[in-house]
Amino acid sequence: MTSYFRKSIAALEGYVPGEQPSDPLVIKLNTNENPYPPSPKVMQAIAAVGPDQLRRYPNPLGNLFRDTAARVFGVTRDMVICGNGMDDILNLGVRAFSGPDAALVYPTPTYTLYSVLASIQASIVREVAWPDDYSLPIDQLVAARGQVIYLANPNSPTSTFVPVADVARLADAIDGVLCVDEAYADFACDNCMELAKTRKNVLVMRTMSKGYSLAGLRFGFAVGDRKLIDGLMKVKDSYNVDAVAIAAASAALDDQAYREQTRQKVIAERGRLADALARLGFSSLPSQSNFLLTTARRPPARQLYESLKARRILVRYFNIPGLDDKLRISIGAPEQNDALIAAVKELTA
Ligand SMILES: Cc1ncc(COP(=O)(O)O)c(C=O)c1O
Question: Does 220 sit in the ligand 1 pocket, CB within 6 Å?
């Protein structure tokens, strides 16, 4: 039967998100959500949304959020664009900067959505392998001569981080745009926000899903030079963020004290979990994010993933060469991490 779809879409394997089980008893450590609830101010902001705000279209640019971001990050409103989750922002970048005549470059392994978005857009893709030590392959990325580079920092699924000075060197060495995916920056020792303020070709992309516990709300944003933001505005849907999300995300971003509290708790648990897994013979890459990529030697990673799942503990297994001996484990609340450690201890005994 002939397909109604464009050939490239018919052939495309769509992005497969991590499992979202309906069983509330499952310990979910598979999609790097924040184990803590959002700031109480978020719930107040949602409760304060009136019927008129729902009856009318929202502000098309999400200006309440842009003004909050401008204050929090020390930029101007015209340097901020909002998105329906960071996936929307990533899509805007792929659509705006890459295509059949303009290459998207990124180091791999990384967030697999990049390649899916590029396929939909029929973009040229040039992948550059991360070296074994996960240092930034600057020369190779420059040599790939892309119109745009996507760099997840910290990277997923490796959890590793490259120094801002290296990212700056890369930005200064290329002709194109450098989009730094900072989905996990809230858990890192540093970030590239300064580069977005000082370079004409750097966009920093952030999400409210991880550091602000709002994965269900769907809100992301990018910060960068006004001309880059203006260009992205032309590509976005007219109302890509809704009135409830604008109110809630603005309240969350405004409550930096709360973010700092949950961030410290996650970072403390990250160290504890890495140590406990190391004592059980697992080696994890040094993490600057809210998850660990850990190598399981015995039993094989897939078997361990399945045995944990049978015990209602979900972690992420990637059936991809180079990753198929590893598990990606989100940092949970202390009691969730304890349950994971106890189960792994039993299964590896
Ligand atoms: C590296 C990376 N970038 C972006 C995202 C997307 O975030 P959002 O929930 O805002 O779409 C994720 C989600 O897991 C991610 O891992």
Answer: yes
